[in-house]
Amino acid sequence: MDLLDLSSTALYTAFVLYLVATFFFGATIRDKRTDSKKGKADKIAITLTIIGFIAQIVYFITRWIVSGHAPVSNLFEFTTFLGMALVLGFIIIYMYYKLSFLGLFALPIAMIIIAYASMFPTDVAPLVPSLQSHWLYIHVTTVALGQGILGISFVVGLMYLIKQIDQTVKSKKTTWLELVLYFLVVTLGFVIITSSFNLAGYKATFEYPQGSTLVTTEYHLPAIVGPNEGTLITEGVMSPLFDAPTWFQGEDAGRKFNTVLWSIITGSILYLIIRVILRKRIGAALQPLLRNVKADLLDEIEYRSVTIGFPVFTLGGLIFASIWAEIAWGRFWGWDPKEVWALITWFFYAAYLHLRLSRGWHGEKSAWLAVAGFGIIMFNLIVVNLVFAGLHSYA
Amino acid sequence: MSKQKIKCDCGHVNPIGTVLCESCGKPIEGNQHIDGNENKKLLNMRYDGTARRSQTYSKSIIDKIWSFFSSVKVGVWLIVLALIASMLGTIFPQEMYIPAQAPNRDPAFFYEDQYGIFGLIYYQLGLHNLYSSLWYMILIALIGVSLVICSLDRFIPLYKALRHQKPKKHKAFLSRQRLYSETEEVTDEELEKIKANLKQSRYKIIEEDGHILAEKGRFSRWGPYVNHIGLIIILLAAILRSTPLFYMEEYVWIREGEQKAVPGTDGEYFIENKDFIMETHDENDERFQAAIEQEGMVASNYQTDVVIYKADKPLPGAEPELEPMQEASIRMNEPLKFDGYSVYQSGYQLNEFNSMTFNIHQTDDAEEVALDTFTVDLTKPESEYVLENGFRVELEQFYPDYYLDANGIPASETNYPRNPAFVFLVYPPGSDDSEISFVGIGRNIDATGENEYKLGIDNFEMNDVSGLTVKYDRSLIFFGIGAAIFMIGVMQGMYFQHRRIWINRKEKGLLLAAHTNKNWFGIKKDIDKVIEGTNVRMVDDQQELDEIEK
Predict the structure, then answer these.
(1) What sign does the dihedral B234-B235-B240-B241 (CA atoms) show?
(2) What are the TM regions of this chain, as residue ranges (chain A) (predicted)?
(3) Domain ranges for chain A
(4) Distance from CA of B423 to the nearest CA of A (A)
């Protein structure tokens, strides 16, 4: 078995271990109810998580050896690393607070992120000149680490909302919470639909003008939306219902937009099925799981993770980023969309930290903020790459 | 509110607006609304009850401005406004990021053409240059003002109050702390033991008449002000950077073999492009084969080999004497630095035409025997060429980058000789009548169809052109210092806590109270350890009690 296969296997192993660990974390809920001491399930769960994390490190190192550069240079590699950072953040927080419920929510979200990552091309790609720098590793890994820790505050904030929001009546709050959960389901829908058509080997090639040249792109999902002014070359496949708007500037925007549409369709169907089975809102179904967690503790963990994640993000996303930009392009700040959104993220968490100074913003309001903050981070990862042209279009 | 300096029962004179006596901590009557202490069991200790200017004076316009900017609420609003404004600027690309391949890069045209009515509005609102717009800068400047005033308003009184702390506190102060207990009887030995324990837990102890103040981590209280100073330094650095003394940037296109004065250096330095090199990753490299097959060739290196010359201060009119100073290769991520200047590899153009050689032959000569030849240097085309064998050629039109525009009229797309085309007037020997010849790559058009002589491209030279950015940025160091101070301040404030424990004698017993700015669990553990083995009662967490009562 060559090293690259080993690397992929290690990542797959990590994924499976996280999945199994989640079930064990789930089993701890019953332990708590019978009021016994820290159960066995708890220990097994965290051990599996740590082994899974080590497996992911094996993936990381072996892939590094194969490619000769740290595997954080494209969307697949970066997003996988973000999932890994989220798991690391969880392990650290778990060691401190011993809160097994956190695993029940943090690991599935890390898994969704890793699954999302693996839908992008996983080939080992060589580095373009602008990326050939040690700052690639320093900048990108620090950003991912900061975002991963901020991701924990999102997970805990979400838990807080699931626990605290009154589910007996439909309200604005239940709707918003449901929307957040719906987004998670859509991400799951993305993974399902993409892997299904990949497995079936679906292909449709388009040709479309980019500036003055004609380029081709390959769709792996049936085209609901084609590239702007594109023509379908492959025969015997579904022809697009409409073209992507011109203002989608990102590389290969039509194909990405098509994928988004498919994800929303699949996710919505999936969501409806879940609702039919549960016969209530997902939030309402999850609420009893969190009966035994103290809301105050969730609030504290959420705040703690922001106080750790914010400085790490500042260091990686603004300071290291500026140093590298200065070396590579001769300007440390260029108002590139990705940079601006990093600044927006920073502004947002700065506002969060200031609001926490007043008591009125503890608890539920602050939990909403933690969820929104991670929304901004995901926006920067997904939408900025999809819609905006920029220097970061590779990741 | 008291209008004069306030003398407390303990004898200490406090500034106007003080909430808790700086010396003994006794709540000052009439000022309790300022920190919201009325009808509350616990005292608000955030700024130790000091007199803040913003909460004290509100008469003059300056007082009002000061109060406005010192509010955290206003600060948060400014941050939120900046956040929203920044979002607006990313809806469509900023002017500088209009793609190079856009049909027309003129912003007045581009936005409406690409994005319709929204694009037009975007452009008319000036959002295409948002981050350098006056109102965005004013917004950032207001955040700066808020940072300064917020910090001064709190830091100065807090600093003074913490410097003059007295161990002896009023009972009303102690009993209204979150952590508090009373003990009826305590021996001197026990007190000594507590002191020893406090020292062991690395508390600093101040004693006065048997009363004790144990304190640790006071510096963490300065964290917020330190990180604000860092941010202010960054904002000031941004102002410095806008002056030519601190920042200069120029862009220069330089051909292989060409020597040019380095722009922005007043002719003090010259640069020569010896070679431009572009390399791609090996497509046979097993590791990358799959990716290269998918995505096409991937560049691995852009590099310009240059020589930097220092020029003797040229006398007006005299040619400068050039002394080679440094030979270097400039790559992406490896800029060249010399004498405070940096040169970056920023662009390239492969295969521009350097010179073209033409020959003249008779139109009906199938052998195309050259009657005369001449060479046009495309960097400095001449208007007239007088040739050896008597021909004379005038260069009537030169299109460096030829194309036919929308109306079918010849034009030049750029000023760079990428696809040169010429209109020549050819005068045969001894004749004053000329023939018009149009020559370009793969074109040779005889407009009249009656030309006796024809021009052919005999030979050409091509070379690459490097785009280099030349700059200095003397403000960088200040950005660096500001960022470092910011990070130190954030950690100082977030990862350390200011803990204080007051022990006041009361007859035979003692009063024990404690305060920390965060991590109450930690200070409770400290107290537990300190009173171990004594009869002193553990403190009650009065906030928890409060909440249970609710």
Answers:
(1) positive
(2) 6-25, 45-66, 78-97, 104-122, 134-162, 174-193, 260-278, 308-327, 339-355, 367-391
(3) 3-119+128-167+280-386, 169-279
(4) 27
